[in-house]
Amino acid sequence: MGANYSSTLHEANNISTRAQVKSSQVIAFHSSTKWKLHFNSLKDTNKLVVIDFTATWCGPCKTMEPVINDFAAKYTDVEFVKIDVDELADVAQEYGVQAMPTFVLIRKGKFVDKVVGADKDGLKKKIEKHRAILY
After folding, report:
1. For the domain that residue 60 is a member of, what is the CATH number?
2. What residue stretches are annotated with the Thioredoxin domain (predicted)?
């Protein structure tokens, strides 16, 4: 019973994780520690990561939210991360965020580009440029 129960529980957890990923392709972090662990796991991949530095009180950030969700659905080879600057001020400071929204593009743990402001077209161009580059 123990092995079957364990594997069933594991399968149930995988199903809920898969469903969660499909419903929201933008990963929000609410803990600096969890962000650091995730960031470190990305250093060995060639995947482009777009970090959306946002704030709940920021009007332009709210305008960009559906845009980011659309980009996440369209560019499935790119990882989209959302970080609230008020929750994770240390992470925002580490990336030199001074205005919202700020989008930081990283690959293999290294900064590759940045877009400041609600510039949908500018962000799209930079995503397309950097997702095509294979290091």
Report:
1. 3.40.30.10
2. 6-132
